Amino acid sequence: MTDIPGVSIGIRTADCLPLLIADPGTGAAAAVHCGWRSLALGLAGKALGTLAEITGTGPSGLVAVLGPSIGPCHYEVGQDVRRAFGAGPGSDPAFETRGGRLFLDLGAVVKAQLLEGGMDPGDIEEVVGCTVCNRELFWSYRAGDEEERMVSFITARGNRGRAGA
Asked: 116 vs 80, 90, 162, CA distance in Å?
């Protein structure tokens, strides 16, 4: 997270979901790496709450973009992952059983945590595309791109409300 004008922050992902959050009023920004472990701990919602607290803007004043990640069409997980989520926001609709196998929808979990945290649904945008299905566009660790990563970044803008900015 940063509120320093002109500073860019970013994360590297291969199949995990990159989440970028911004405060249009203050220009502050956050880049969050959302894998199943961090989401089971509520990271998307915690990042939203922290940015809202730092900027003094309520969660409904923030905007978010969810980047590409492995989709529920390919993200097979074990029961240990299901247990790690417990009954947290987004856990029920995020898991699907097909043919006796369990699949996880990272985007559904992130959206649920952001909505639970107070974001307006219209302020959440998503770059649609599974990293495994769309190998011509994205890197995928699970599909064999073990050394390659995508970079998602966001740049903080100046605070329009602050004198002299």
From this structure: 24, 9, 30
Q: Which pTM value belongs to this model?
A: 0.87
Query: Using 50, 70 and 90 to split pLDDT, how confident is the model at 74?
Result: confident
pLDDT at res. 23: 96
Does the domain formed by 8-69+110-155 have CATH 3.60.140.10?
Answer: yes
84 and 36 Cβ atoms separated by less than 8 Å? yes
Domain boundaries, the chain: 8-69+110-155
| DSSP character string of 59-127 | GGG-EEEE--B--TTT-EE-HHHHHHHTT-TTHHHHEEEETTEEEE-HHHHHHHHHHHTT--GGGEEE-
